[in-house]
Write a structure and sequence with these properties.
11 strands, Rossmann fold, single chain, 7-stranded mixed β-sheet, binds S-adenosylmethionine, Diaminopimelate Epimerase, Chain A, domain 1, 444 residues
């Protein structure tokens, strides 16, 4: 890492630092560069969105992956900490669902693992960035202060019981739009998969398939109107969106991977299995398409930042504050509120604040953002131009059917303007989104 890297805290330069960070971390992690890069990339999204809350890794082992997270927030100069949860004496008692693949005490390498990890972060000059919570999840999760929030969590605790504990105690502390990356979903052992499935049944959230075994959830992110069709193809799921159970639950598939001695979902492995099993499982072809895309952007030394579509730009986070009118906290509050309104209405919401229109019409400036953000048929964009004191609401065709120009003008007059007069952007935008929500919810 050069001094120039240290000084330049832009997220693009952080993306470019991935290779150097992982080079240091990899010897202390059982994860691969693919999965690390996948998590890193989601972390960049979270940092860019300015979400509130700390980071956590549940299942730390020797601390390499946690180091990667900590290094990223140091370079981003984010005032966040990374919470490290692990027994540091290996896996707890292994239940029935996981017994075939895991055993109690697995990952207990030395007696002093906790001290070793602590020393490692001291040596890296990062002991103040991390907070180590040693003990069983059942105890350490319970001891987390009530006001603790997370914006990014990497779960790598392998077992059904440990995953359940994460959904019960950590997930409720994840802010809206926050990210949970889970390892070991696409593996021969089905315990973790089952715990994720149970959560999805309740939440209806999307599950993003990552490279190899990794998957990701974005808190509150249910299927949106602009989701790519293969993500929502019922043939690839067992009825609830993107559970991928058609693939993940297929024991033959996993057994065949295991027989090959390659417990990894890489493109060649998937391709080979498709040849053999495509007549039985129709979801494989769509899965391959997805994995090819993910692997495409997860190769190389940098984490990369585009194209956004490849990592499924999140409609709840299309909040661009070119005027820097929002503090990070205000932006995070706004993003959370927009995520709630988007989830409730199933409309994609965006907010654009520009310092000036620079001679263009607000309609033209918005039109460009509406298109490049792919807000689409069920999109809603609220824009504010500060110097011109102009504001406007633009909707796609579905919204236009119920929200006419007069409604939009009334909402801006009654809900936005009084707040803007006091300089309260978040209050105004939140009230505006709520008023729009009331109208959109009248759509059958
Ligand atoms: C696969 S290892 C983690 C690997 C690490 N993230 C890396 O990248 O190298 C799983 C870890 O989860 C921890 N673990 C699993 N369930 C746990 C529980 N219920 N309480 C505490 N630690 C747990 C184990 O001690 C083990 O260190």
């Amino acid at each position: 890492m050069t001094n120039a890297d240290e000084d330049d805290v832009g997220l693009d330069s952080l993306a470019a630092s991935f290779g150097a960070i992982w080079e240091t971390a990899r010897d202390r992690s059982v994860n691969t560069a693919f999965r690390a890069r996948y998590a890193f990339r989601w972390l960049l999204d979270v940092l860019e969105a300015g979400l509130d809350g700390d980071l956590a890794e549940c299942g730390v082992y020797r601390g390499g992956f946690s180091y990667m997270l900590a290094r990223a927030i140091v370079l981003a100069k984010a005032s966040k900490r990374v919470h490290l949860f692990d027994s540091f004496v290996g896996l707890p008692e292994v239940g029935q669902k996981d017994r075939a693949w895991y055993r109690q005490g697995q990952f207990r390498e030395t007696d002093g693992l906790k001290d070793e990890v602590e020393r490692y972060f001291e040596d890296q000059g990062m002991s103040t960035v991390v907070r180590i919570h040693a003990g069983w999840f059942a105890d350490t999760f319970r001891a987390i202060p009530a006001d603790q929030r997370f914006c990014f969590v990497h779960f790598d605790g392998d077992l059904y019981s440990s995953t359940r504990q994460c959904f019960e105690s950590i997930y409720p502390r994840l802010v809206a739009g926050g990210v949970l990356v889970l390892d070991d979903f696409f593996t021969v052992s089905s315990g973790l998969r089952e715990a994720v499935r149970e959560h999805l049944r309740g939440s209806g959230e999307l599950l993003f398939a990552g490279p190899e075994e990794a998957v990701c959830l974005v808190k509150g992110r249910t299927p949106g109107p602009s989701d790519e069709p293969y993500l929502l193809d019922p043939a690839a799921t067992d009825g609830f969106p993107v559970s991928m159970e058609a693939v993940a639950g297929d024991e033959d598939y996993f057994r065949s991977i295991l027989e090959k001695g390659a417990n990894r979902l890489t493109i060649p492995v998937i391709r080979e299995q498709i040849e053999r099993l495509s007549s039985q499982v129709s979801g494989f072809k769509t899965m391959l398409g997805y994995h090819e895309k993910v692997l495409e952007w997860s190769t190389g030394r940098t984490a990369g930042r585009g194209p956004r579509q490849a990592c499924h730009a999140r409609w709840d986070l299309k909040t661009e504050d070119r005027a820097r009118a929002l503090s990070p906290r205000a932006k995070s509050t706004l993003v959370s509120r927009m995520a709630e309104v988007s989830a409730a209405t199933q409309f994609a919401f965006g907010v654009l604040i520009v310092p000036t229109l620079g001679g263009d019409s607000i309609k033209a400036v918005m039109g460009e953002a509406f298109q490049s953000w792919q807000l689409g048929d069920r999109g809603v964009l609220i824009a504010i131009a500060i110097r011109e004191r102009d504001s406007r609401i633009q909707t796609g065709p579905s919204g236009r059917r119920v929200l006419g120009d007069d409604d939009a003008a009334r909402i801006l007059r009654e809900s936005l303007d009084p707040h803007l007069a006091r300089g309260d952007f978040v209050g105004g935008l939140t009230a505006t989104a709520t008023a729009i929500q009331a109208i959109l919810e009248s759509i059958e």
